[in-house]
Amino acid sequence: MKSWSFKTENNPNEISEKLKSVLGPANGFVFNIERYDNNSITFKIRKRILYGWYLAFHNWTVINGKLLRIDAEKNTTVKISFTHHFIIKLIIIIHFFLGLVMLISIILRISSNASMYVLGGIILALGIILWIAIQKKFQKDIQKYKSLISEILEL
Question: What are the residue ranges spanned by the domains of the chain?
């Protein structure tokens, strides 16, 4: 999880409306807002999955944010955290788990088949390669979202 925070001179309602208008459903995003009171608003943004193959391209990063009014003036603190989508975490964990289970079963001599060595190694290597690729894409997505939010809020 990566965090980003900054201060802006708009109130939380104005900021949430700006974000919702640009990152709303019409532009392919899921944007959820929860208003706690006049001083605190939380939001969650992610790309919408329209087709199954979009999962591989769009829906890897989820943005969780909080807008806090810090004083009676219009100053607002914006706290944003970027996380991986649950499905991406699940895919990586499954690859690691299956690869390790196959290799452990070989070590414990539950299965002595040579193809198990190859299959376990391939699945484990695929999990590691996926993890590295996902981390690179995650960093790129964070930079894109930071620049997009900066343009929206005119920072």
Answer: 2-87+148-153
Using an 8 Å Cβ cutoff, are 11 and 69 in contact? Answer: yes
- For the domain with range 2-87+148-153, which CATH number is right: 3.30.750, 3.30.310, 1.20.120, 3.30.420? 3.30.310
Task: Tell me the longest C-alpha to C-alpha distance in the chain.
Answer: 71
**pLDDT digit string, tens, across residues 62-105:** 889 888 877 766 788 888 999 888 888 888 888 888 877 877 77
CB 71, CB 110: distance < 8 Å: no
DSSP string, the chain: -EEEEEEESS-HHHHHHHHHHHSSGGGTEEEEEEEEETTEEEEEEEE---SGGGGGTTTTEEEEEEEEE-SSSS-EEEEEEEEE-HHHHHHHHHHHHHHHHHHHHHHTTS---HHHHHHHHHHHHHHHHHHHHHHHHHHHHHHHHHHHHHHHHT-
- The pLDDT tens digits of the residues spanning 103-116 come to 777 777 776 677 77
